[in-house]
Fold these 2 entries.
Entry 1:
Amino acid sequence: MSNASQAQPQLLSWRTVGAEVLEWTHHTLMMVGFFVVAAGVYLYVHPQTVLSLEKGVTQWVAARKATVEELQALGRQASATLQTPQVAPQPAAAPPGLPLTHPQMAVANWLSHRYSISPVAMQELVSRAWQVGKQEHLDPTLILAVMAVESSFNPYAQSPVGATGLMQVMASVHRDKFAPYGGPRASIDPMANVKVGALVLKDAIARGGSLQAGLRMYVGATSNATEGGYAAKVLAEQARLQHVVAGVKVPADAPVTAAAPVAKPPLPTAKAEQTASSQPGAPQAIKRSV
């Protein structure tokens, strides 16, 4: 058999394979085209699917962008941290008015234990009482005793007639005194309340002529009968504090002087306040009764 006759069957075999490949490719393209057309028809009939796909792609792009930006920010922060020299942390600043003297610290610790108040907060109140007492020429233990009896050192305490704060001051009556601190709303500010309360107490003592009479006027009572032992409770607490200042050991759970109920005086009207203030020595309803 010649060489030409041997090559002929091989040539026919390659042609057959090529034809089959072309036919398979043709059928594949037809199927792809069919699916494309079917998908187009489906999306045309259901446009909400297009919107859903578009929304999903948009969210994916936004999330990817946010992730990239976050990673870039972390990288910049890490780079800045490596380049910035480390600084040793500074100790926290001491509370205003500190350090206290040894007697003042003893008073703060005793009151903190007696009334279950934070030691740091009580130290600030004791410091403020000593500061205001020096300014207004009042015994700081008297200021602290009034706070103890009036509010048990609760700066947010409020009486039924509207007296507020540590020293239970009628902010509506003493607007002028709270004006430097921003008005009556400052009555719950411990620092402002102690200052204004001390001013009211000092004025009451001056008008009453004695400490007991001043305390009676401070609480709004008109006589010893309606005062209900208020002055006795304040003076008893002040005596305990003075003993603590002197270094005497005083039990923190010492009972407060018992007091009978006191009738609450009516709230003064603007006209009554003006009339009372125009009469020298006339008692004023400074605040609520206890």
Entry 2:
Amino acid sequence: MGKAVGKIILSGLTLSVLICTGCRAVNSHGEVMTTPRGAAVAGERDYVGSKVCAGCHPENYEGWKTTLHSKMIQEPGQPGALVADFSKKDISLPFGLKDVDLLLASRFKQRFMKKIGDDYYVLPMQWNVATKEWVRYFPRDEWWVGQYPEDWQKRPTSRLCDGCHSTGLIGTGTTITEWNVACEACHGPGERHVKAEASLGPGKGAGAKIVNPTKLPFERANDVCFQCHLAGRPPEGSNFADRDYPVGYLPGDDLSRYRSPAPSPGREGHESHEFFKDGVSRKNRNQGNDFIQSRMYSRGIRCFDCHNPHSGKYTAMVYKPGSSLCLTCHGEGSLAGPFERGLTEHTHHKPDSPGSQCIECHMPRIGKNAVKLESRCHCFDFEFVSPEQTVLYNHSNACNLCHKDKTTEWALRALVDWDGRGKWRWQRGLQELKERTLEEKGD
């Protein structure tokens, strides 16, 4: 595939030689190059590749293969990999499928990577899955834009995208062990673990040589996911100031040493490419930025308490579909709430309506992925996505996403009529609307 994968051959429990087959490294000028076959690369020896992990963990490996983590980067010829329609005649594409060496993503959008020299570059059009259309792809709002020329052929994926679409590059800064978010992206380099298994025997202390995120302290556990799902910047004084991923981070580390969170608009009253005025995310892959503001995070919930990285059975790799997942902890009579006597008393909607589906009110699609209203908010608290937020910060709210024919004022009045704990909060939103109307009239 151009960037090849280190291979380890196991015979029984005997570990043989690690062979590098075209790993990518960085030269003294900071340019990514392909390492000649057999050459040693610092850090490369620590990674073994997911196929080696599969030898002892076949169930987890086969489950992971069903997830989109395993399909971030694919070759055009792989069955089912291509979702874009290159036959559409309503637009003049500046490239054809023959120019595409690798496909990037497939659920919401698909982008196209071309190998030039020893690196890859994203071609200047993308396919939007929901609308089935081609649109121009050339980032102008990302934080790193000023550090790269106005030419897609001068923006290598090794510095901007590949860290979170591969395994090994984040940890080493130089080497991709394999494409896609594989075992060692979350569990850390596996060579010491494999050697310990070979010398000590299965399950005899080898676990100390690998990272199990479920056994990490709370913040370090979430950091494993945040390495790619938290919008951020290189920290002050970083030697990798042009990289859009946390170079040097390994699972179990303190991510804040390698990544600073993206600046939130907070109370400054302006939107950014990444956030609405109130700091709620406007785009996908900022789930961590939303999550750390939530009551769920403050109560000690970890990303993988809801998401199962070893199964793609349900959308977004969750353990259970829809409300059944939420009701695992928030069922009737739960100490975690809700505290009403029944579902409809809490939701004020019929049991079989969207308004009684937990995620439609607590995780509505208000952010953009390929198009607007595709990415679910991960703040969880309804206050972050209420009609009041539309009044104050001009982003979509959970109510009007369903009740498209109604106004924001209608939604606020409905909430006031429900009474309950939010009564005065929604009154505040109505008062703000009233004062704005008076200002517009000049009264």
